[in-house]
Amino acid sequence: MHNKLIDLWSKNKPVINAWLSLPNSFTAEAFGKMGWDSITIDMQHGQNDYQSSIAMLQALANSDSLPMVRVPWNEPGIIMKMLDLGVMGVIAPMINSKEDCEKFVSYCYYPEIGQRSFGPMRAQLIHGPDYYNQANKNILSFAMIETKEAVENLDQILSVPNLTGIYIGPADMSISYGLDPKFDVEDEPVYSNIKLIAKKAKEYKKIAGIHNGTTTYAKKMLKLGFSFVTISSDFRLMMTHAKNIVDE
């Protein structure tokens, strides 16, 4: 078992992450051949569920991209089931306090650092018989910072041991401050929060991640200190390109 993202970050290289909203194994397989560093299956707002994720992860088995998931909620059942399926990173939405974050981290790791239950059926199949001994140092845990409350509790959240990093949900954060939901935010106070989060993550030696609408904005975020950037999603990319063709 080996996590290539940890290697990239140790060399101060950024990770470019893809986002799969469509429950389709062929789409997953195609994205797996494109050269993304990691690929995240979205179970929160995407159309994916546990059953569709099985085929998608099987389709990614021959890819060099690291498989990750955004779970629908900070809930132990689905987090542990997805880890048992073999995902190597979990992004949890709406982590608003230190307590939320401590619970989330505990669900991702085996004792003594967490409370993950043992039974890694597919994970052991694909990552090898030594999975149990290797999992805690290879699994990534990202807490989503999406609300005013989370920003106010940022230091406490970042202080949680064994948390890999934080991941900004710009749309929900915008809503939290009375703005319309969108990516690539430059409105205040959200943009100041984004810069603060990058700075604070570095102080706490955590990885800072953010969801972006465009490569232009993603490059801007890399310059701010983010080292985990998602650009768009399978659904948005398809819709944008298809609409451009119709308009042309």
Describe the structure.
With 248 residues, this protein is an alpha/beta fold. The protein contains 13 helices and eight strands. It has helices at 4-10, 25-31, 50-59, 76-85, 98-108, 121-127, 131-138, 148-152, 154-158, 170-176, 190-203, 215-224, 234-247, and strands at 15-20, 38-42, 66-70, 89-92, 140-145, 165-168, 207-212, 228-231. The protein has an eight-stranded parallel barrel with strand order 1-2-3-4-5-6-7-8, surrounded by seven helices. It is globular. The protein starts with a helix and ends with a helix. 42% of the residues are buried. The model has no long low-confidence stretch (mean pLDDT 98).
Give the overall shape.
Answer: globular
Q: Tell me the strand percentage band.
A: 15-25%
Low-confidence stretches: none
Query: On the 0-100 scale, what is the average pLDDT?
Result: 98
The count of DSSP E runs of length 2 or more, i.e. the number of strands, is 8
Structural class: alpha/beta
Span from first to last CA? 47 Å
- State the helical fraction: 40-55%
**What pattern of helices and strands is seen along the backbone?**
HEHEHEHEHHHEHHEHHEHEH
How many separate helices?
Answer: 13
Radius of gyration over C-alpha positions, nearest whole angstrom: 17 Å
- Give a short account of the largest sheet: 8 strands, parallel, barrel
Strand arrangement across the biggest beta sheet: 1-2-3-4-5-6-7-8
Oligomer: single chain
